[in-house]
Every structure is written in structure tokens, then in C-alpha cells.
Write a structure and sequence with these properties.
The protein is mainly alpha-helical. It contains three helices and two strands; from the N terminus they run αααββ. The longest helix is centred in the first third of the chain and has 9 residues, at 14-22. The chain is rod-shaped and about 95 Å long. The relative contact order is 0.06.
């Protein structure tokens, strides 16, 4: 009986290789083939962008803030978004 180091094994078939590759986690495959930046873009929960200079990108949400303003005569009101801002 040949020792394990000298045993000759037949090459795996196409279907075997395909099954092994298909079982690899898509995230791990992306890191291996395309790098960490591609993984981050595809699989991270928070999509991050990089800005080349200050104020190049602004982000906001549509949460209504609990703000009251007081006018010159003491009246209170909630600020709105003027149509000219849109």
C-alpha cells in the first residue's frame, strides 16, 4: 500500500470543483476576487461614500425635528421648509 504522500489521486471532475466553488460564501468570494472595497460596497449595511473635499456631499433624513421658533412679537411657531428650498 503506497504511503499517503506518494498516492496518486485522479483530478477532481468539473462538477466537483463547481460544487466546492458554489459553496464558498459570496462575501468571501468577493473579497478574494475583487478586494475589500468591492466587499464593502456590496455587503456592508451602511453604504459609505468618500468626499474629495469639504461640503462635497451632504446627507439628511426626513425626520421632523421638535423645534419651535419665537417671532419678534413672542408668537411661537414650527418652522417649515419654504418652497424655494426644494
Amino acid at each position: 500500500m503506497p504511503s499517503r504522500s506518494t498516492a496518486v489521486f485522479p483530478p477532481p471532475g468539473y462538477s466537483t470543483v463547481r460544487a466546492v466553488v458554489a459553496a464558498i460564501d459570496p462575501g468571501l468570494r468577493t473579497i478574494a476576487l475583487e478586494g475589500h472595497a468591492a466587499y464593502r460596497d456590496r455587503f456592508e449595511l451602511v453604504f459609505r461614500r468618500t468626499a474629495g473635499r469639504a461640503n462635497e456631499q451632504w446627507q439628511c433624513d426626513h425626520t421632523e425635528l421638535d423645534i419651535e421658533i419665537v417671532d419678534a412679537v413672542g408668537g411661537r411657531a414650527r418652522p417649515g421648509c419654504p418652497a424655494s428650498w426644494m
